[in-house]
Backbone:
C-alpha cells in the first residue's frame, strides 16, 4: 500500500474526542405513503470502524443513509450521534455535527473547478462574517489560505493534482467520484458516509478508491459507513457488515458470518427451494 | 519593491495568497489602477454636461446591476423586482434627507440598508419557490412596492414626488454633474471590489453552490434559506444604494421610473453583460444606457424632422423593439455576454501572433 507523503492536517489534531463518532439508530421506520422503505432498523457505529451496509436493489440502503444525513425524515425511531439526537434535523445541521457524505449520482457543482468544489466543503469551517469578507480583511485572507492548504493536502492525498483547476463537468466519471470523495473529506467529517463509491467504475479506478478508503480507515482512523453492491470489495475491507432486504435488517456481523448466513444467500441468490 | 510580472508565462505561484488574488498577473492590477486614475482625472474635464449625465447614469445603473448579478447570476434566484428595490432606496434617501435631515453619505448608506431589509422580506418566498414561481412572487413584490410608492401619500408624497436638498459631502457641494461623477465612480469602484471579494469568499461559493445544486449545497453544511435571504439582502443593498445616489443626482423623484420596465432593463443589463460576472454587469449597464439614449435620440430626431414626423408615431415603439432584439441576439450569438467578448479580445491580444 502506497503511504501518503505526510499526515494531512485534517487528521493531525486527532484528539480522541475530535474524532469520536458513535452513531446509534434505534427502531427506525420510514414509509412513503403505503410503501415501507425501512422497518425497525437498529444499528450502531463505533469510532474507527468501517461498517458496510449491503443488500439487493431496493433494499433501502440509500433510504437509510438519507435518514442518517437528514434528507429523509423517518416516521418512527431515533438516530443519535455522539449522544445527541439528530433525527429530523436539516441536512446542513447534521453536516455541522460531523457527518459528511458522498452521493450515489455524484452531486458535484459541474461548472466550478475541482479546487472550488473542495473549498466549498470547507464552508462550515470558515468563521468570518459578511462584512469582513466584503473587505477581504487580512483575517479573512489568512483563513482562506489555511483552507486552501487543507484542500491542497486532500488533492495530494487523492492524487488529483493534475486536474485541480479543471471544471468538474469536464472530468471522466471515475475522477468525478474521486472528487466527490475529496469533497466529503474536506468537510472533516467524524463519520464519513459513502453511498456506492464504486458504482460504474473500471477495475483500476475501483482499486484506487479502495486504496484511499483503506488508508483513510487504517492509517488515519476515519470512521466510515460504506453502502455498496460490489461484494468482493465489501467482504475484503469492511470490519462489520449489515445486510438489508426489503427494508429489514436480515443479518449483521463479520464478513465470514454474513457470507454464510442462510437469509443472505437467499436474498442474493433467490430461493433455491 | 518586488519585480512586476506581466505575463502568465514563468509566473510561478509560491504561496497560496498568490492563488487567491483577484488578478493572475500584475498586468490586470496595474491597468485597473491606471484606468481608474485616467477615468477619474480626465473624463469630468473632457466630457460635456450631457455626456457626463449619461456617464453618471451608467455608473449608478452599474451599481444596481452588480447587485442583481449577485442574485441572479451567482445565486440563481430570478428577481423581477429590482427596480422596486432601487425605488425603495431612492425614496428612503429622499425621506431621510428631507424629514430627518440626514447628511448625504448617511442617507445613501441607510437607503441601501432599508432596501436590503425590504429585499429580504420579498425574498422570503424563495424558501419554497424556485425558478418561474419565484419569478412571479418577486413580480408581486414589484407591483406592491410600486403601489405603495404611489399611494402612501403621507410618506412618499404620492405622484407629486419629493424634492431633495443639494448633496454635500464634508461641507463640499457635490450636486453638480462633475463632482457627482467622482462620487459615483469612487462608489462604483468600491462596490465592484466588495462584490468581487464576496464572490471569492465562502459566501460567494455558497451562492454558486445553491445555484448549481441546492441539494448538495445543503449536504455541504450550507443553510440554503439563510443564504438565499442573504443574497436577496446584498442584492437589494446594491439596488438601494444606487437608488439613493440616483435620488440625490436627479434631485427630485416621483414613483414613475421604478416600474417593471426598469426591472427588465436591469435583467437585460446582466444578460447582455454576462451572468455571474462582475465586470459583465458594468459592461451591460454601459451597453443598455447607451442603447437607450441612442434610441431616444433617434426617435426625437424623427419626430422633429418635418417629412418624417408623419411616421413618427409608428416608429415610437421602436425603442422597445430594438431593446428586445438586442437581448435576443445576445442570447443566440453570445449567451455569456459582453464579459465573454472582452475575455476573448483580451486573450487574443495576449496570445498574438499565435492563435492559442
Residues:
Amino acid at each position: 500500500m502506497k503511504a501518503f507523503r505526510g499526515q494531512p492536517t485534517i487528521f493531525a489534531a486527532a484528539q480522541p474526542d475530535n474524532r469520536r463518532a458513535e452513531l446509534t439508530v434505534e427502531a427506525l421506520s420510514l414509509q412513503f405513503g403505503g410503501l415501507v422503505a425501512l422497518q425497525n432498523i437498529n444499528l450502531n457505529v463505533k469510532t474507527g470502524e468501517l461498517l458496510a451496509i449491503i443488500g439487493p436493489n431496493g433494499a433501502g440502503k440509500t433510504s437509510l443513509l438519507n435518514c442518517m444525513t437528514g434528507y429523509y425524515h423517518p416516521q418512527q425511531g431515533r438516530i443519535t450521534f455522539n449522544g445527541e439526537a439528530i433525527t429530523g434535523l436539516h441536512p446542513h445541521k447534521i453536516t455541522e455535527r460531523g457527518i459528511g457524505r458522498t452521493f450515489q449520482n455524484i452531486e458535484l457543482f459541474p461548472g466550478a473547478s475541482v479546487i472550488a468544489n473542495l473549498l466549498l466543503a470547507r464552508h462550515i469551517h470558515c468563521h468570518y462574517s459578511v462584512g469582513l469578507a466584503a473587505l477581504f480583511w487580512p483575517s479573512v485572507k489568512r483563513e482562506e489560505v489555511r483552507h486552501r492548504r487543507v484542500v491542497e493536502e486532500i488533492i495530494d492525498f487523492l492524487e488529483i493534482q493534475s486536474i485541480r483547476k479543471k471544471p468538474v463537468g469536464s472530468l471522466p466519471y471515475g475522477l468525478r467520484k474521486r472528487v466527490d470523495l475529496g469533497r466529503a473529506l474536506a468537510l472533516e467529517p467524524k463519520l464519513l458516509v459513502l453511498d456506492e463509491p464504486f458504482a460504474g467504475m473500471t477495475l483500476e479506478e475501483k482499486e484506487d478508491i479502495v486504496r484511499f478508503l483503506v488508508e483513510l480507515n487504517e492509517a488515519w482512523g476515519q470512521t466510515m459507513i460504506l453502502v455498496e453492491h460490489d461484494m468482493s470489495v465489501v467482504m475484503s475491507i469492511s470490519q462489520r457488515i449489515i445486510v438489508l432486504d426489503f427494508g429489514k435488517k436480515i443479518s449483521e456481523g463479520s464478513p465470514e458470518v454474513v457470507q454464510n448466513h442462510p437469509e443472505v444467500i437467499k436474498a442474493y441468490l433467490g430461493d433455491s427451494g | 519593491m518586488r519585480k512586476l510580472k506581466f505575463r502568465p508565462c514563468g509566473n510561478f505561484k509560491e504561496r497560496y495568497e498568490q492563488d487567491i488574488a483577484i488578478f493572475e498577473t500584475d498586468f490586470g492590477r496595474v491597468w485597473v489602477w491606471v484606468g481608474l486614475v485616467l477615468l477619474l482625472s480626465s473624463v469630468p474635464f473632457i466630457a460635456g454636461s450631457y455626456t457626463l449625465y449619461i456617464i453618471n447614469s451608467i455608473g449608478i445603473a452599474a451599481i444596481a446591476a452588480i447587485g442583481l448579478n449577485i442574485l441572479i447570476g451567482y445565486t440563481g434566484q430570478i428577481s423581477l423586482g429590482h427596480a422596486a428595490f432601487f425605488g425603495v432606496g431612492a425614496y428612503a434617501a429622499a425621506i431621510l434627507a428631507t424629514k430627518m435631515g440626514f447628511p448625504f453619505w448617511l442617507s445613501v448608506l441607510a437607503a441601501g440598508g432599508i432596501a436590503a431589509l425590504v429585499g429580504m422580506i420579498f425574498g422570503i418566498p424563495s424558501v419554497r419557490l424556485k425558478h418561474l414561481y419565484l419569478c412571479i412572487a418577486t413580480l408581486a413584490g414589484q407591483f406592491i412596492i410600486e403601489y405603495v410608492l404611489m399611494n402612501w401619500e403621507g410618506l412618499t408624497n404620492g405622484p407629486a414626488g419629493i424634492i431633495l436638498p443639494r448633496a454635500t459631502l464634508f461641507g463640499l457641494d457635490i450636486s453638480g454633474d462633475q463632482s457627482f461623477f467622482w462620487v459615483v465612480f469612487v462608489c462604483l469602484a468600491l462596490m465592484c471590489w466588495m462584490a468581487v471579494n464576496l464572490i471569492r469568499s465562502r459566501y460567494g461559493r455558497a451562492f454558486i453552490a445553491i445555484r448549481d445544486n441546492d441539494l448538495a449545497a445543503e449536504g455541504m453544511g450550507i443553510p440554503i434559506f439563510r443564504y438565499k435571504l442573504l443574497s436577496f439582502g446584498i442584492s437589494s443593498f446594491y439596488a438601494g444604494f444606487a437608488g439613493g445616489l440616483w435620488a440625490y443626482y436627479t434631485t427630485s423623484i416621483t414613483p414613475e421610473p421604478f416600474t417593471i420596465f426598469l426591472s427588465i432593463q436591469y435583467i437585460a443589463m446582466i444578460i447582455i453583460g454576462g451572468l455571474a460576472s462582475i465586470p459583465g454587469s458594468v459592461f451591460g449597464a454601459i451597453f443598455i444606457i447607451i442603447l437607450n439614449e441612442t434610441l431616444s435620440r433617434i426617435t426625437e430626431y424623427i419626430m422633429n424632422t418635418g417629412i418624417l414626423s408623419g411616421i413618427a408615431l409608428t416608429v415610437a415603439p421602436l425603442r422597445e423593439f430594438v431593446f428586445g432584439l438586442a437581448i435576443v441576439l445576445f442570447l443566440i450569438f453570445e449567451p455569456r455576454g459582453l464579459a465573454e467578448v472582452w475575455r476573448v479580445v483580451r486573450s487574443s491580444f495576449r496570445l498574438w501572433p499565435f492563435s492559442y
